[in-house]
Write a structure and sequence with these properties.
Blueprint lengths: L3 H18 L6 E6 L2 E7 L12 H13 L7 E7 L3 H9 L4 E6 L24 E4 L3 H20 L1
Parallel strand pairs: 3-4, 4-5
Antiparallel strand pairs: 1-2, 1-3
Length: 155
Amino acid sequence: MKNREEYYMSLAIEEAKKAELADEVPIGCVIVCDDMVIARNHNHKESKNNAIYHAEVEAILEASKVKNNWNLNDCDLYVTLEPCMMCTGAILNSRLRTVYYGADSFKAGFLKTKINLEAIRGLNHYPVIKKGVLERECAQLLSRYFQKKRSDQTE
């Protein structure tokens, strides 16, 4: 039986799998408000040929439309990989209440790994950060994708 955090992260993993099928880096995101998923998305950077189309940014845009408000302070975001600098900025600016993430991003993680957001003083918003939700499943999805990419390049 999955707890609530694992349930919503499993939905983010489903989104990540959609990205993988589209030959995008498999990162997925869902946004939850009042125990309802109000937004879900995955990376579209390759298909839209634009660096800003990360799963989190797309889900935040979708959630803001659903709520008809940029302020998502009663919402929680679930994402399979620790957000990058750009996505962390979008999370802060949209005032998301809690960020749950699966795998650490050793190259670009801006919540705990590269930058510890909680150690930066003077920001106007600090979401609660919960890391490691279904971490193994999230990390395996990314590892498998990049292993396949590397093997495809050597063939």
